Structure formats: structure tokens, C-alpha cells
Amino acid sequence: MNAIELKNVTFTYGKSMPGATPALDDVSIEVKSGGITGLIGHTGSGKSTLVQLLNGLLKPDSGTVLLDGIDIWAEPKKIREVRFKAGLVMQYPEYQLFAETVAEDIGFGPKNMGLNGAELDARVKEAARFSGIPEELLSKSPFDLSGGQKRRVALAGVIAMNPKILILDEPAAGLDPAGRRDILGGVKRFSRESGTTVLIVSHSMEDMAMYCDDIIVMAKAKILMHRPTAEVFSRAEELSAVGLDVPLITRVAAALQKEGVDIGLDVYTVDYAVEQILSLL
Known about the structure:
The chain is α/β, with parallel strands linked by helices. 40% of the residues lie in helices and 21% in strands. It has helices at 47-54, 79-85, 102-112, 117-131, 147-159, 177-194, 205-211, 229-233, 236-241, 248-258, 270-280, and strands spanning 2-11, 24-32, 36-40, 62-67, 70-71, 86-89, 165-169, 197-201, 214-219, 222-228. The chain has a 6-stranded mixed beta sheet with strand order 6-7-8-3-9-10, with helices on both faces. It has a 4-stranded antiparallel beta sheet with strand order 2-1-4-5, covered by helices on one side. Strand 7, helix 6 and strand 8 (197-201) form a beta-alpha-beta unit. Helix 3 crosses helix 4 (117-131), helix 3 (102-112) runs parallel beside helix 5 and helix 4 crosses helix 5 (147-159). The radius of gyration is 20 Å and the shape is globular.
């Protein structure tokens, strides 16, 4: 079964205003259960609108949004339950921290789901583990933490709700390389161990190449392509035409090909490039 499915979805901001154009225009897409899917596109392509539709923060003007085969708007009064099922971590989520301790902040969502006592405590500790938060920090104030640690606390707060689908909007924005690896490595570990379907929005082609199994490319409020990661980045000309780039190592592979050293155009990680180069020696 597909974890996510959009059928002919259209959404327009201020649709009653003259000249309003769709942010999403008759979009249909399917994302299989499990694994990590990337979502890329230039600013204004419709990425943020799409993820807010998945979480029920926005309602489509037309079309259907399904999670695990169920129309999320079939029963509008239950839309709150959808937000537990599809956990959304917005960009710079650390600005939304508010509790006195890290543990209380992580446990806020599960507590609102009705968890308490030992079950709540276990859920908080497990989410902290996935997010790379040492147990000794759980009693600290989240406002005493570093920027990267705050980001991990915000992520843990969503993971603690045990969502079937985890949606991340630029989860590593503003972090240094080590911080990016910590956050995204934890997300990958969480997805693999729990079977949770993850959708990541990012402008970093290197992050997409490193962590995503497949990628959705958006342009002008539509889906341009949805393919395995290697295939997406092998279509550099199409990406360039809509203002997107490919990982640096993919550009290196293209330059090598022009010089007569063909390691393929589907090279999108340094490790794979090394394998291809060694195979030629």
C-alpha cells in the first residue's frame, strides 16, 4: 500500500483574488510505505504547500489526499488525528520549543495523544535516542542547549508521537556539516528501524543524494519527475532547466566523461564515485 497518495490535487492561495494562480496544479503522486523520499524544487514550486496538505494544515480546493489509502478529509472533525499520523517538522522548529525541560517538550505531543506514566516516559527516551539526545539532557531546559541540540529536541517531539509518516521541511537548514550528519543520520536510522515513511524537503542536493531512496522534483506547481535518486541526478539538464542543481560529485563525473573517463552520469555520492573509478583501474 502507498503511504502517501495525492489524486488530482489543486490548491490556490487567495483563490478569490483576481489573478490568483495555483500553488499546486492538478498534482498526482504516490509514495510507497517505508523508505526516505526527497522533495526538491525551486522557491515557489509548491513544496511547502504539498507538505502542509499532507498534514491537514491546508485543505485542497479539489482532488484527494490519502494517507495509507484513507482520505484525510473524509471526516473533517478527525483531522487532528491525521496530524498525529503524519508528523510535520517545520523549518527552524527549535523556535517552537516552550517547556521547562527537554523531556517535557518531547513528551508534549504524546501526552496530548493520551499517553502518561511509564509509557510516556519510554516514548520520550526512545525518541531522544533516535534523535541523538543524551539522557542526561532530558532534565535540562531546552533553552540552555545549542542550536543543533534544540533542533534534535524538536525532531524528537514529533518522533515521540510515533507517526506512520514523518515529514521534514529543511530539517538541517542552518546547521554545520557535522550537525547535518547528526540530524539526517538519526532520521535515516529512525526510518530503517521503525519502518516509518519519511519525506524530506531540502535545497541541499548533497543531502538528497546521501539520504534519499527516491526523489520527487517539483516545478511550476506540478510534478516534474519522481524517480530513484540515481536516475533523478543523471538527468542534470532537466534539473538545470527548472533552476535546480545536481550534487558536486555528479558534475565531476560529467566533466570526467568529457575528458574520456566514463564513470557514468548516475554517480551521486563520493563513495559510489570511488567504486566506479577503482573499477576502471
